[in-house]
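> example.struct
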């Protein structure tokens, strides 16, 4: 059974990522890219669907003297006596864990009756000039004190746990390597401890003494190629730590929340597909928003609506190269057919994201279906036009190298909106119910027109300024007339609706109305009355429990963390800074022990839920910290 979502930590190489549990088990790893099929899919099933666990061989709490029958022990000569062949390493949680400095190098330590042992997990960045292009995961077992018996249990299952590979040993340069092959994929295991196979699993039993380090490495390679180079684990560790140290040194934020901001920036970097600059929303699929329910989606893609806040956060913390790469990804993805803008694309700009269900996987804690691909890519969401134009405007305003194609693209997007802004759509939350006139979508259409007018006023580009000024006024008037409930003094989710929506919190942040406008304050207070959970976090919108509601789905969901950060932003903007800071610090408190956030928080179970870690939670964390600290040269959004 998989661990709780918040019990995982992220490691990655800026092209794919793995989730490592507190018990030393890697339960999720897609190779060679974020969106490739998983080699370890135990996260969405059981150990039968793939994992790699390294940990102490004995139960942590057992007495040192009397070993229970059947457990491993030392021989009289002090050597390790092998575990029973069917036993995996006991799933004992680490005593403590942390990232090494500001990096994605994870270390976990177990205190045992016989001593203390540390496991260091990392993936060397593939983008470094001195490295090849193949992904590697390296695990170094280090003795801290005493002598601790360890077990590595590796069960590779290709194609999301469905395919058992052919596992065999080969001689290479005087050493014996273990290789698993299935179709186009091969995975090579190198280690300093002898391995053996039982029950379709590869084991290694060994003892580590104080000061001793024993390394293992897992390398993916196309199966038609020869053997990949054997890695030097210690050299790779030093190079990886140096990479992260150099990258974090560019951060310009020095405020009181620096630890949280830097960890969020490192997480965003870890979710970036380095060859293209695209950022995945999360490295996982189908971690449920409602445990045991059907709200399970594939987030291993790049959403356009993340563009503005991501670009803003990167620019305001000193990462102009990443911001530039993100803008260029955006331009490539949208190029060629801007009138048919998708809400999301593949990490290299792919448009076809066909959705399918993996019926052989039982799902995380029984949450089915397990989905790959995402049909929401086919939806009409007018808000993304505003997000794209806002991102391009922000890039221009902050002095990124001029891109004439960006200006022409912007004009084409507005020409499309001019003809279609009055249409209903599926809205920001990708509802699978009927289309509506969502207020947030109309507001973002206004943003697109407003920013384009500003661009034309500041550059030599030509456009129908007077006509688009009238269009801007028409959209504004339409929203205020049809999307506002004067009796309750609040904007509503959609025209004619009485329901609220947390996306309305963005109205002052995109300058649709000033923060001190009575309608803005009324909307903030209405959301506080109607969409807050008992612990003070924000729901996206009302769900209908067991019935299908506005989103066309049964069941409930947790508080949406991005929306909770938006509320903190709004409270600060209307002068209620103490409330804003209190909410922000309560949000920081629900991060896991290594500073990571999923998409949502379940107030009933007091657990993180949804895909993990979630870029759309970490980006607004950065923005809110910057707003509260009142630093940086740019206004949020």
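> example.seq
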């Amino acid at each position: 059974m998989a661990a709780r979502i918040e019990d995982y930590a992220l490691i990655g190489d800026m092209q794919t990522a793995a989730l490592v549990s507190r018990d030393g088990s890697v339960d999720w790893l897609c190779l060679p890219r974020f969106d490739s099929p998983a080699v370890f899919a135990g996260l969405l099933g059981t150990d039968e669907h793939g994992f790699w666990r390294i940990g102490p061989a004995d139960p942590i709490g057992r007495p040192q003297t009397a070993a229970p029958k059947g457990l491993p022990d030392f021989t009289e000569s002090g050597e390790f006596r092998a575990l029973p062949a069917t036993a995996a390493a006991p799933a004992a949680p680490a005593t403590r864990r942390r990232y090494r400095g500001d990096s994605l190098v994870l270390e976990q330590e177990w205190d045992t009756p016989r001593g203390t042992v540390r496991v260091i997990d990392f993936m060397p960045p593939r983008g470094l000039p001195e490295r090849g292009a193949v992904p590697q995961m390296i695990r170094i077992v280090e003795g801290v004190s005493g002598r601790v018996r360890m077990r590595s249990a590796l069960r590779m299952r290709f194609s999301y746990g469905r395919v058992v590979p052919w596992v065999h040993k080969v001689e290479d340069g005087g050493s014996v390597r273990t290789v698993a092959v299935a179709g186009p994929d091969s995975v090579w295991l190198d280690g300093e401890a002898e391995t053996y196979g039982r029950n379709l699993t590869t084991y290694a039993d060994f003892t580590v003494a104080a000061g001793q380090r024993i390394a293992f490495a897992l390398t993916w390679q196309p199966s038609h190629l020869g053997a990949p180079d054997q890695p030097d684990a210690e050299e790779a560790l030093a190079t990886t730590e140096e990479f992260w140290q150099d990258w974090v040194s560019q951060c310009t934020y020095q405020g009181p929340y620096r630890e949280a901001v830097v960890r969020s920036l490192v997480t965003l970097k870890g979710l970036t597909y380095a060859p293209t600059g695209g950022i995945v929303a999360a490295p996982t699929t189908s971690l449920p928003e409602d445990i045991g329910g059907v709200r399970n989606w594939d987030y291993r893609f790049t959403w356009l609506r993340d563009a503005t806040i991501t670009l803003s956060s990167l620019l305001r913390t000193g990462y102009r190269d990443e911001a530039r790469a993100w803008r260029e990804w955006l331009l490539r993805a949208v190029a060629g057919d801007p009138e048919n803008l998708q809400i999301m694309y593949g990490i290299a700009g792919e448009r076809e994201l066909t959705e399918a269900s993996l019926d052989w996987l039982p799902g995380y804690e029984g949450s089915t279906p397990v989905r790959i691909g995402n049909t929401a890519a086919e939806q009409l969401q007018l808000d993304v036009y505003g997000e794209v134009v806002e991102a391009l405007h922000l890039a221009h305003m902050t002095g990124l190298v001029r891109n004439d194609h960006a200006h022409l693209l912007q004009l084409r997007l507005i020409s499309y909106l001019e003809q279609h802004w009055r249409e209903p759509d599926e809205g920001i939350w990708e509802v699978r119910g009927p289309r509506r006139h969502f207020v947030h979508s109309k507001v973002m259409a206004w943003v697109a027109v407003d920013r384009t007018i500003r661009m034309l006023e500041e550059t030599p580009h030509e456009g129908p300024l007077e006509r688009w000024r009238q269009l801007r006024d028409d959209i504004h008037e339409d929203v205020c007339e049809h999307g506002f409930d004067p009796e309750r003094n609040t904007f509503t989710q959609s025209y004619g609706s009485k329901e609220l929506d947390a996306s309305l919190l963005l109205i002052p942040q995109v300058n649709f109305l000033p923060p001190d406008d009575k309608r803005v304050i009324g909307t903030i207070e209405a959301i506080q009355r109607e969409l807050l959970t008992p612990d003070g976090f924000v729901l996206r919108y009302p769900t209908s429990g067991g019935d299908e509601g506005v989103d066309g789905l049964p069941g409930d969901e947790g508080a949406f963390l991005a929306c909770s950060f938006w509320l903190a932003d709004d409270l600060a903007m209307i002068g209620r800074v103490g409330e804003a800071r209190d909410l922000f610090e309560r949000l920081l408190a629900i991060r896991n022990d290594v500073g990571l956030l999923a998409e949502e928080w379940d107030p009933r179970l007091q657990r993180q839920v949804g895909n993990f870690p979630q870029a759309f939670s970490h980006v607004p964390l950065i923005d809110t910290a910057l707003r509260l600290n009142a630093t940086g040269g740019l206004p949020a959004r």
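> remarks
The two ends are 41 Å apart (CA to CA).
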